[in-house]
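Supplementary Data S3. Sequence and structure tokens for construct A.
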Amino acid sequence: MTTTEPRTTLLHMWGIEKSFLGVRVLHGVDLELRAGEVHALVGENGAGKSTLMKILAGVYQADAGGIELGGRAVAFEHPLQAQQAGVSTVFQEFNLLPERTVAENVFLGREPRRRGLVDAARMNADTTALLADLGLDWLTATRRVRTLSVAGQQIVEIVKALSYDARIISMDEPTAALADEEVELLYRLVGTLRDRGVTILYVSHRLKEIFDLCDRVTILKDGAVVDTVDTAQVSADELVRKMVGRPISSFFPARVGNAATGDVRLKIAGGGNDQLDGIDLEVRAGEITALAGLQGSGRTEIAHALFGIARFTRGQVWLDGRPVRPRSARQAVRAGLALVTEDRKAEGLALNQSVVANARLVLDAVRPRQSGHRAKRIPGILSSLDLVSRGGDQEVRFLSGGNQQKVVLAKWLATDPAVIVLDEPTRGIDVGAKQKVYTLMRELTARGVAILMISSELPEVIGMADRIVVLRDGRVAGELPGGADEETVMALATGHQTGAGTES
């Protein structure tokens, strides 16, 4: 996104230093934000992005350096000070009360009063005016937040930020949990805010969003600024190289030779339930089969059916030639299945427990008698994944997103699965960590493991899959070879035209 005229500097952070327990995480960082621009902040997990955002938000205080806002020196010692100065932050983890209304969340802690009581009518009216001003008439002030989609909750956070007359809004991975159609809604809202002169600091691992939305980008690596460039003046390859030292073309490793026979390890014939119909699918030893399709097409529903979460009520499933019908996750694991869920924090990890305790979770729950023996392999598995941690006793919540994902993978690898279902395996992790996950996937298939991958990122599907099964409305729309182009995949997913593959 290019700008047509110069913009004035609104925020200047310079020489920012920050250490935790003697470990320096920011090294003299400089950041300049201009009025009315969308400015991307990118870098690998652990590069210092979140720490810099929290210093700007008043959550942390810098050890050295300074901040100027609108030409005046500021020092935020509390998030409320930052908000009152016009700097608001929308964190990846929402700070909303689900049982309260949109208006009650927007004005939480500063509700308008009348005769000592909360003036609900005024609060609702003020929230309605904010929503209408942004073209969000479909969202009502009196609606309970728990009834909203993730995108709707994201919008409530942004409206809350604007209610402080925000001049700068920091957004941390705002689309990480959004469906494609919800991303478009966020795009429009960001464009509206920029047109009104609001500055957006946009943190994302998704390169497409950076080039679609952002005017400039600052790259952090190991706590220091590598460069700040106009997005119009840099290519995706150059941006990635600045972040991790490798071109994007190297992210999808070539398939390595393997001794697998190529026998069918997982087969579904006529699988169906309330959400799926007539699913025919095979996954062979040593291959990656990808499930592609729009949100709600049935991708995750297949994973849940295989794992006994929402069982197939029609059809048959075979695993290594044996008929199976798991009625629970425990039965699925014992049959040889593994499921890496799309939300690692909510469904894949015990965040307050240690690395080793998490890596043993499935073994202890499903194979308690063999757990002690099999757990002896866990240190080797963690080492093979290049896990970066303080040690096996470190609590998982203190790891980066990429390293948390490695712990999830270790948990399942400890069970020696025949088939691994990977649901959004690289969601919310940086480009460097993605490459390591891709390499691991290739290594697993080289050992004869069959992988069923579910992904919303078409470049990932095309770059990693040996076969692509496209779903639409709970049915198989067609099958394509690995390396098929994005247009053909989307044609099958949307039903606008017949793709180049076999259509059902």
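Construct B, processed identically:
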Amino acid sequence: MSEQDLFYLLALLRVEGVGDIMAKKLLANFGSAEEIFKTKTNQIAAIDGVGSVLLKNIKDKSVFEKANQELQFIIKNNIKTSFFQDENYPERLKHCIDSPVLIFSSGNINLKNRKIISIVGTRQITSYGTEFCKNLIEDLAPLDPIIVSGFAYGVDIVAHQFAMENKLQTIGVLAHGLNQIYPKTHKKYMSKMEENGGFITEFWSSTNPDKENFVRRNRIVAGMTEATIVIESADRGGSLITANLANDYNRDVFAVPGRVTDKYSQGCNQLIKIQKANVLTSAADLVYMLNWDIENKSKPVQKQLFVDLELEEQKIYDYLLKNGKELLDIIALQCEFPIYKISGMLLNMELKGVIRPLPGKLFEAI
């Protein structure tokens, strides 16, 4: 997009009463933001939903000054922009009716041909949630997914940290402009995140992290990803809003179950109870439900003549070789491994080409 096109688009988005849906409607009718400002009032009035107040606002020339200020900020700070019809705009987000017309980003983000998931949850993450998040991301690392979250306290920042530790691309979706960071204590993570990933926002540099912006932010977290994972949540919270948005966008939702007495498992247990989330106990559940193993069948993993297996992996392989197809839970019981650990081991063994998953959480040796 040229600077001139960006300038007029910014001006259009600054018109009071022009939200994402109306902006898309006007752009569809007139082709470009510049053309909208040049079009006669009676022609704009013919568009469904355009009233006298909006017509007056479109003719308010103060939007051009505001647009120019933001354009200068974008240029000066090397901010990347993505128009909703551009190739570099998140593909899944394009299909959400209320997706932002324009998003701003920083860092080194590459969304092409990638598995993208969001991990969300309480700001008061427990040791249980931290351990689960750590194991989940470590076990998914061989599949190289992009981890998206909101860069907030708790589950968000833990997910970003473990993604970085496993050299995975991670993206923080912000509820404010790129001229600041919230919370300020997370500023120390910015440079490392921007090396492999970065930040996305729909908000201008003049926008502060006000409460209502976090709800708007959540629709991007839910909309741009293949699945949303809720690690921990109380019975109310922003992560449940994200889960509901993901359901509305027809995305997969997963929740980590916990004890009924645990405060920060109540939200997850409720999502599962009312069938708004799949139960997530391991990385293997996610891989199976999203058919990530099926996607790779065009390039199957060939079993090597000499595969280096860890002693624990060898124990599992020998068991499956002897007993044939077996359920994940039974494998864990018979081989004396905890579920969370064996899930990651089975995933690694699948990538090595020595076992394969079957429907119903069954596995067999190759």
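The first strand starts at residue 80 and ends at 83. The CA atoms of residues 91 and 266 lie 33 Å apart.
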